[in-house]
Amino acid sequence: MIKGGNVGLAALSEDTGSVIVSLNWSSATGDGDADVSVLLLNGDGKVRGDADFYFYNNPAAADGSVQLLGKTPTAEGNEDRISLDLTAAPADVERIVVAASRYGGARFGDLGDLRVTLADRVGETLLGFSIEDADVESAFIFGELYRRGEEWKFRAVGQGYESGLAGLATDFGIDIDDDAADEAAADDSAADEETADDDAADEAADAAPEAVEQAPAPGAEGAPGIPARTATPTDRVTDEESAPAPARRPRTAKKKVTLPKVARKSLAENESWRAARLFPVSSLRYDREREMRATSVLLSVMTQVPEFGRRLTAAFGAPAGRMETFTEVSLPHGGNAPKRPDGVIRVERAGKLWTALVETKTNGNPLKSEQVQDYMDIAARRGYEAVITLSNDVALEGSPLVDVKVDGRRKHKVALWHLSWAEVAHHAQMLIRHEGVGNTAHAWLLQELLQYLQHENSGCHGFQNMGPAWVPVRNGIDSETLCQGDQRAIDVVESWDRLIRQVCLRLGGELGQKVLPVQRARRGTDQSSRRAAMADRLCEEGRLYAELRIEGTSGILAIVADLRTGKLRTSIEIPAPDQGYPLTWAKRLVRQLAEAPADLHVETLVEGQGGGPRGTLERLRPEPADMLPKGGARITGFRLSLFKGMGGARGNAESGFIRSVDDAVDRFHSGVVAHLGSRPARRP
Known about the structure:
The protein is 28% helix and 25% strand. By secondary structure, the chain is an alpha+beta fold. The strands form 5 sheets. A 7-stranded antiparallel sheet has the order 19-20-21-22-25-23-24. A 6-stranded antiparallel sheet has the order 1-11-10-7-3-4. It has a 5-stranded antiparallel sheet with strand order 5-6-2-8-9, with no helix packed on it. Helix 2 packs across helix 12 and helix 4 (287-304) runs antiparallel to helix 8.
């Protein structure tokens, strides 16, 4: 589409009652990002109230008409997806505006490939619109859906705002409330006072008799102590206009319930006592038992906790409505014996049914193509909308877990979706620890589900095996006989990608923040070509590389698995401040890392050189000046690294490679990244 163009959805697909809107962008540096938001407008072009503004702290409408599905990495950047159930949109909503905004002075001109696409319920792309004139704008309306009689239409907008989301929100009637900001600023000021005093003292010592550089004001960019996920839409607007730090009041229609991360003190006499669980799992011994139990547990909780069920099914194009789930349903299959999918999900809305068949695998068992093919054929004949596969494996773009054939002669289309057990656990964790659910009973049910999934006997632990190619590839690297183009190296790279995505899900669920893999590739490179290039690099260097972007942190967390030395390296690069003196930077960094491991490696990055002075934190603590390069060379930043022995086995046992990667990332984040503070919170 071109800017300003519009099209009726009915002309593009027969079923557009539920659609998926995707916003895409890429970044040459790998760390460019934006926040999506959705506004529901009435006939006057204004929101009916603040609750009609949806963003990451208010991600879903109670009626299911809007749900932000989160980000997924692509070959060149990120894709942020939004589920819109147009049949559930209130009658007085005339327009649905889809926008995105940047924060901290970032502009959309720094991003590439700005694009919005719209897909129907089976995931088939219906239209696309690219924004090619982005420059200094910090907020953009990508497009909007609007009513014309009984029909919904899409308009390609592409309107930018230099004033950020504050200007956009004001145009559509969002209230800007400054009342609570002063109290929050006072809290942050007290937290920052000691650090500011220390920095000022260092500057005075380094620069004397020159003037002392002023410390950043509380709430200013770079000031510590502002949590990344407590901002509200109103708070973010006020910050865009240089107001004090954001108010910490939740922006929800009603209070949500979350559970504390640390359980209450147990009343058990000793550690051998085990708490009674709603979903007992210790007696499970066989794979068939695990599959049946896991399917029944998951589907029953989806029904009883609407927030959770809707969160999972919205991504598959399901409407918002009354949900019922079933297990071990017998369905006829032509002249053959009836087939029994592990589960069925049915959602009713306005007298219409949406139906999905569910095929489950646990304990690392692979999905079977012929089995999934049978369910796709049954779904097509019976007019069902989707087949959902669920297993320990993590799906990758461009690398399907099962190969199925779709009969193009059939008018009815069936969507094939995949869900990993790691994703199920992630969504449960986000709801009960960070975003909240409707009541305490729902929170308790999700907690019981999470306990079940994490039990060693459940078989639902996520991706757990690097595959049969792992040992031959390691042996080939040791003996220097692994050649470029070897399919086994590509298999290992695919397993590595799956592991990294699972690490992101697990860490994101713990932190309540978005954690995404960074994929640096030339524009136009598909996933298969990218993995082939990584496999060639593995053959040549014997190393696997990955980068994670953690919301709220100022750098990219890098992971290097060196198969030759058997070492894992986790690291982060911190840019040098724009102002101040090098010795002050060094002293400040040592203070920030007061609780970090003594074996942390600190390397000074010097302009035009491969690296500057380096040493362990234990050695540098008494003498921060040792971090300064000779001759006054310009410091561009610091690299912090931890090294750990790498597990050799391909599985998730205590000595396994997967476990060692998890442990390395956890240790580095909790021991290093968490002490560095966060960048300013994102605000509209």
